[in-house]
Amino acid sequence: MNLPTREALLNIEWLTRTRAAEGFQSLLEYARRGAETYGGPVTAVAEALQDLTWACPRPFLDSADLRHALAHALATGSWSSSPSGRHTLWSCFQWYWPALAAAKRAELPARHVPCVPPSLPDLAGLRLVAPLDRAWLAPHHSVWGCDVSPDGRYVLAASRGGHVAVWELESDALIASGRDGEEEVRDCAVTPDGRRVISVTSSGKVTIWNLPTMTVHGTVQAPSSAPAAAYILWRELQSPAPPALEGSPRRWRRFAIAPDGSRLAVAGWEAVHVWELEALELVTTLRFDHGLTPGVLAISFASRDRLVTLARRSPIPVVTWDLSSHQAIVRTTLEVPPVPGIQRALVTRDHRFFIAAGETATIVWRLDNASLVVVVPHGVSGQALAVSPDGTLAATCGGPDEVDGQRLAGVKVEVLRLWSLPELRPLQSWNLRDFG
Q: What does the pLDDT look like over 382-393, one tens digit per residue?
């Protein structure tokens, strides 16, 4: 597959002809390679094409109205002069009507007002909205995990599209992007010595990368996750049924790195694998007995030979394991306030506090006496919870009930909030609409 010229990749007529002759997947591969080579506006085209794959069934993309689709995909967001405009990729699906059967197409106009798409921008003139210039992920969709290297030089992000990207903070430049062949990278983290990056996919593939080049050091496999049917059956057998700590079992991918960077623990449905990180040798497998709840909400090393797991149920079982004897040596529970949809939780590095976030609130407990510290009425979206290395700050990202004093009506707005720990006193907030 020869690399097209930059001019071709920025020409809508060439894009349309190539899609018709070779199919959408080939066009997407051309754009991805072009983004890695040319950058700039070619990246915008590659990102827009990648976003189409999340908005429309792939078989439809070979015959969808590509000009109409790109007009929507490039009308808002980071590459647009109107980042929060009303014409988004998700505001119209009429661009894939040509892919539908003729009989189905005949029914649609009677039920829908025909869409007048925005004007297709000059592709060669696309520029990132400040302050995001040069900070692109390569073709991606949805960042599900991120981290900062201990020396503050690099920022990493794991995406639903399967990339683990590395930016250099001093230059604001993307310097490497790793991809292990799978999509849905659920999380990533940098080892304490700053030499490696750990990422995990929803399938349980754990990849250890060299930082900053993102070459692969090795891979291991997480313990199996529960099939959805097994999780449903387990919940039905509980009496009374536990409150939902939500999220698909395939998304419950939790891992932890020992404080000295020597070991890696990866959780599954009924077990935790512990590996020597450098040699990638399995140290032990900790299996949950019938007294412990399957599914792990959070996992953390207290030391090289002590591991703490917090299970996914209410009240939350907290278990400290001795890795030498492979036994659970301390058990306690945390009472959970009525907060729906708890998906994300972390233990502070000093193991004094446990912080968890759901749809409507964020909660902090003390671990030494299993007591509740505080509940604040601001939840998170998905994986958006972080704690500073010194355990004094927390960050959450979620949708507010109102913006600028006005109630929201079906508008997705995310607010990033910075809190002090452990009392969750608000320090600062940013509306992500302001960043494109």
A: 567 889 989 999
